[in-house]
Amino acid sequence: MVRRLAFLGLIGLAIVAVWVGWLQRPVTVESATAHPSIIYEGYLEDGGSSAHGQYDFLITLFDAATDGQPIGEALAVPDVTVVDGRFTAPLSLPARDQPVYVEVAVRQHGSSSYTVLTPRQIVTPAATGTGTTASSQTRTVSISPAALIRDLDSTNLVMDNDLALRWAANVSDEAGFYLARPADWDGTSPVTVRVFFALGGNGAGAVNWRLKLNTYTPGSGEWLTNPGTRDADSLLTFPSGPSWYRIYSQSFTLTDSNLANNSLWSFFLLRGNAANSETFAGQLYLLNIEVEYGEGELALP
């Protein structure tokens, strides 16, 4: 029986990760300082369909993405209710300055053996300063292009050496990711999505990425509510002969009210076209995506 896991997030004082969905690729996530009481939220498939029923989980922290040494003892979480693939489990992160890798093993409740789900998910500590409180700070979630949901059969979107997503010009293909609403987001400050990319060629022209923001309304039965496609905050224009190895970025500043009202966000990117003034005719290499938000005032241990 094939089982797959998507890591939706850490609830509490830790920043969420993204849904790796079809690809099951590693995701790098900057998280808050370790805290003894957080919740691991995930999505589980069993035999190709959303899991449903009672499952036992075994969660182990490691100091490496593969092999490595366990950090502390494995946490057994028996008899967890999984509904439409979604589940939560308690998790404690150690106080350390190095990344930890979360390995999850699962079995149907009462079965004799666990199935280890791969890959492990990385949680990287981010500095929060000293003192008893942290306020007016910015947190960032970093998403690798290898983790994006996309049409794997499309020749318009192709991973290049597992480092960049090569994106053809003048195509309607899109790729994106899911993000559980951060528990420490202050609920009012803008959310910024920042796209890092390189040019696939030396021709002149303008680049204008587009973004679809979708949200999930709990209990509505509707996963996606699409308020439309928006352009980047500013158009990037390149003269003839830009260096192909330079890295550029464009940002989307989001102030949509439905961000605060919905527990799950999704962000899908598209190349621009003549309609939104994109004129660069070469390929673009998507290198990384960051989601940045302002956190509320939190009491830290």
TrEMBL record:
Source organism, top-level taxon: Bacteria
Protein name (record): Uncharacterized protein
Source organism per UniProt: Candidatus Chloroploca asiatica
